[in-house]
Amino acid sequence: MLHTIIKENAYQDSVVLMLLTNKISTIAGVNRVSIMMGTPANKDIFGSSGLRTEELEKASANDMAIVVDTDDASILDEILTEVDAFLASQATKESSNETETARTWDKAMKLDPDANMALISIPGTYAASEADRALDEGLHAFIFSDNVPIEEELRLKQKAHEKGLLVMGPDCGTGIVNGVPMAFTNVVKPGNIGIVGASGTGIQEVSTIIDRLGGGVTNAIGTGGRDLSETVGGITMLDAIAALDKQADTDVIVVISKPPAKAIRDKVLALLRTISKPAVTIFLGEKPTYHEENLYHAYTLEETARIAVQLAKGQEVTATQTTIDVPNISFTPEQKHLKGYYSGGTLASEAAMLIADALALKEGLIKQDGYILKTEGHEVIDLGDDIYTQGKPHPMIDPEKRIAFIRDAANDPETAVILLDVVLGYGSHEDMAGQLAPAIKEVIAKAKEAGREIAVIGTVCGTLQDPQDYNEQRQTLEAAGVIVKDSNNEAVRTGLELVGHKVEDNDKAIQKVDSETTAPQLNASDAMLDLLAKQPRVINVGLKSFAEAITETGGRVVQFDWRPVAGGDAKLQKVLQFLNSYRAETADVK
User: Fold this and answer.
1) Which residues in the chain come in under a pLDDT of 50?
2) How crowded is residue 479: how many other Cβ atoms within 10 Å of its Cβ?
3) For residue 68, what are the domain limits?
């Protein structure tokens, strides 16, 4: 039976509510529970999971809605006690935090008149209007929020470009601004390599391998995954390349993208051919056959990092040949399939690309229901896809969904290899390896009882400086029976060779390319160069955990204690957004 509890004017950010949901779900007698703010979008999520109730309709966007499925109504008092205790602990934690807090933009800008970036991590319905206000205040915008319409993304990026500002996102999960982490980011040593990426875990994989190879990063500018679409046109990518080319501390530029629109890819390459610094590109899904003078084309994220470090150290760029040490595992004749369950979308895409290459697959590469590849018994899933995260924690935080997939795959007598990633850094689980290890031990033992061996192969995306212990995470996985490799590329190739397949690498010589695309003429603004040259001063609109990471690494932050305006009414918000924009334009004229 469903029971609804509404806590009025008890706004909490989504991470806090996800952690609270996990805590309440452990109470004996709770079949299911969902705790979210009472926004229209969240009510739809309640409905899609069968938890929408009549009482829920009364909740406003500032009300916390708790819907519990239980056969024992007597536990509701215990649930309320646990909720209140959890919220009280959060309040105590916030009161001990020395970060300055504002409830309005005017107050936030008064607390730090020199702020130059807004980090926005609120529900996507409201993100565009806050990004608009940030741009009006002269701030660059880092938009972690997803579910922002692409038309709004285009409008915001055009506005930013005209103002000489950068919009990173929407759905931008990773960034490093002069050593300060934005959102889900690893702690990477400083250096002379600048990264621009339409890919979150792509940036993380490349930057962490750079770190472990002895290199370092100046800035890593996330653009959001749609930036290189026909609609958006690569606005942020192009502006960021122009800025990194002028940024004094950057000697090498790395460009990372999931499959882009061809016309936009060609425009990016045309610009890279005109800049003064050597560059490395990876467009996932493409298998380059050549390099160009001062412009190198990689196939895997690991190769991208290796070339970047060679260039950064002034070394000759040499071919990257991945040597695989194939473990001794005996499969039954039926065991032929690889199953990949990833928390990182780009790592999942790379795995699917390599599997499709080795197996010469003509079909099966898809983007539906979280699947990146599904064919002939092989499958690769991005568990960070919206279908798995609506109203639930991201798999970098919560292992529950991945554990369920691992168990299902291990029960399939045709599964030979299970691939997985553990992504470290700010925002990720403090001990994801420890969370996954018991289930991994269980499935390996269960397969052995059934007369089968199963290979679980993983990689840890991280550095020795990350909040989690990189070596300890590796050791925990190895103790559970995981074959741990140094990169996702190496892990996938190991799995492929175990089932009798191999990825062939191209030898790439330097070629001259006559481009038919005219390079855009771009000038990096003073505001862009200033952002990349100094530690940022941030107005953090949303998740408080992001503010903590900024202050820990020397950045300055004001916490914007955001609440939905106009009671969450979308039409009234648009009116307020128009009035705010009008006010800003009037002020500019004066």
Assistant:
1) 582
2) 12
3) 2-94
